[in-house]
Write a structure and sequence with these properties.
The protein has 490 residues and is α/β, with parallel strands linked by helices. Helices cover 45% and strands 14% of the residues. It is built from 19 helices and 15 strands. The strands form 5 sheets. Strands 5-2-3-6-9 form a 5-stranded mixed β-sheet, with no helix packed on it. A 3-stranded antiparallel β-sheet has the order 1-8-7. Strands 11-12-13 form a 3-stranded parallel β-sheet.
């Protein structure tokens, strides 16, 4: 029994409520539906305790297992503009661990969805991975006095809490991909409240000029990078976009409710025209429609992408509304899920870290000497001044100190900057070592995977099969609603 579980037990005992702890099998996975199958109960009897981050601080949200959070409703209830999943470090400061958060035992505001109170009993976390607790949610309300609200929508258990994201197949991953995407993927993967789908986005890659030989190599390298970073095919569905043809077919069906003018007016399309004036293709124009299909074919309610993708997500929501209104479907209005570290600055001091800008990035495969050389070229100043720069090369270096060393280390350097000064040579040396220390286990795992071609092939093949199973259900549902089921009676 963990210390937190012991604390939960004491709180329940002091309140005098009835409860029951249940020991789970040692090899049980963290998915809610697996737990409820063990208990012999429907998923609606599960209560998830989710720690979210807002601009006002952390909150705990409690919802039924068969419901999906409506971000707009929840933001309104909380009175906030930003909502994202708290990361492991933020949760550990409160003694909590992702996926096994208990209903009591911490000093955080609690918001409970009213649908929970429709049940006479619920099963929820205890703070210990191998135990659940059963109790009456009305008794729980007497203990915690949560803020009650209506901020979820009931959904079938197959699509509840689904998350979809991916990375373009333009080469091996760099620190920007790792910090801005993959670490967020890992947080979501390890939270049993979410069903995660992560793809290599090769069809979107070919909307602009590309080398077909490089593309094939890049696709495989990204799958290997996913695995090396810790994405687990037992927990997440890892797949290559083009190996799931349902994406393309659904995109065509979606295109029947989207106008050409709407696509042409998107700022992202106009930017791509400027970048590739000689390659303005229908594929490029239809990019947002395919993105909508990528997301909605899994009925994903959440998409962890950068804020630059918000225009495309709005197209996704528009398509969902039109399909729902016209054909009586039940697509969710997908929300962007902001992840900590989603914007990783370029080493050059301007813009975002990008593979297309030489000198701006550090690859996950770079050795210590390469990292040192790249940091050495990062622009700095004299190391001393009246105030710490908030943008430019120095700000970027300090940001990386915070990300790979600690906030305390950054604060120490900032104090030195307005005092005795910073020695950038020593700073960059220590920073390079810190970055390499985090990348070394990934690189070692990558070498193992490169030698195990059969396993990587198996992951790619099985991932496509799992993705196709989920995607085909949605596609068949859409085709039936649109009258394209010619050999069915109804």
């Amino acid at each position: 029994m963990s210390d937190l579980m012991d604390k939960v037990k004491n709180i329940l005992d002091e309140a005098g409520v009835k409860y029951e702890f249940t020991k789970l099998p040692d090899d049980i996975t963290m998915e809610i539906d697996v737990h409820m199958k063990f208990h012999g109960k429907d998923i609606k009897f599960a209560m998830a305790n989710i720690v979210l981050k807002t601009e006002k601080g952390l909150v705990v949200v409690q919802k039924r297992g068969d419901s999906q959070i409506d971000n707009k409703k929840l933001k309104k209830l909380l009175g906030v503009q930003r909502l994202s999943l708290a990361n492991r470090e933020e949760m550990e400061k409160h003694g909590l661990t992702p996926g096994i958060v208990p209903p009591v035992g911490y000093d955080l505001p609690i918001y409970m969805d009213k649908k929970v109170l429709e049940m006479d009993e619920i099963y929820t976390g205890t703070g210990d991975r191998l135990y659940t607790v059963k109790l009456n949610p009305h008794d729980l309300v007497k203990i915690t006095n949560p803020n009650l609200g209506d901020f979820t929508n009931l959904s079938d258990k197959q699509s509840s809490g689904r998350v979809l994201s991916g990375i373009r197949a333009t080469g091996r991953l760099h620190l920007g991909n790792y910090l801005g995407a993959v670490k967020g993927f890992l947080e979501l993967q390890d939270n049993s409240d979410y069903q995660t789908f992560y793809m290599v986005v090769d069809l979107h890659t070919i909307t602009t000029p590309y080398d077909e030989k490089v593309l094939k190599e890049s696709v495989r390298n990204i799958i290997i990078d996913y695995l090396a970073c810790g994405l687990d095919p037992k927990k997440s569905t890892l797949f290559v976009q083009s190996m799931v043809p349902e994406h393309i077919e659904l995109a065509y069906l979606f295109s029947t409710v989207v106008s050409i003018a709407r696509m042409q007016h998107l700022p992202t399309f106009k930017e791509k025209i400027k970048m590739h004036p000689g390659d303005v293709t229908m594929a490029l124009l239809n990019y947002p429609v395919l993105m909508a299909a990528d997301i909605l074919v899994y009925k994903a309610g959440l998409v962890p992408v950068g804020v630059d993708q918000e225009p495309h997500l709005e197209v996704t929501r528009e398509i969902a509304r039109k399909m729902n209104d016209k054909y009586g479907l039940n697509f969710p209005e997908t929300e962007r899920f902001a992840m900590p570290g989603e914007y990783v600055p370029s080493l050059l001091g301007e813009g975002k870290m990008s593979k297309s800008v030489e000198g701006s990035y550090i690859n996950l495969t770079d050795d210590l000497e390469t990292i040192k050389a790249k940091l050495a070229k990062a622009p700095t100043d004299s190391g001393k001044g009246g105030s710490v720069p908030e943008k430019g090369g120095v700000a970027v270096i300090l940001k990386f100190v915070e990300l790979f060393q600690s906030k305390e280390k950054r604060a120490e350097y900032e104090k030195n900057y307005v005092g005795e000064g910073i020695r950038y040579g020593q700073l960059k040396e220590e920073l390079a070592q810190a970055i390499f220390n985090e990348l070394k286990p990934i690189q070692e795992k990558r070498k193992e995977l490169e030698q195990n071609k059969e396993y990587v092939d198996q992951v790619i093949k099985e991932g496509a099969e799992k993705a196709r199973k989920a995607a085909s259900e949605t596609l068949n549902e859409v085709k039936k609603a649109m009258g394209l089921n010619y050999f069915e009676n109804n």
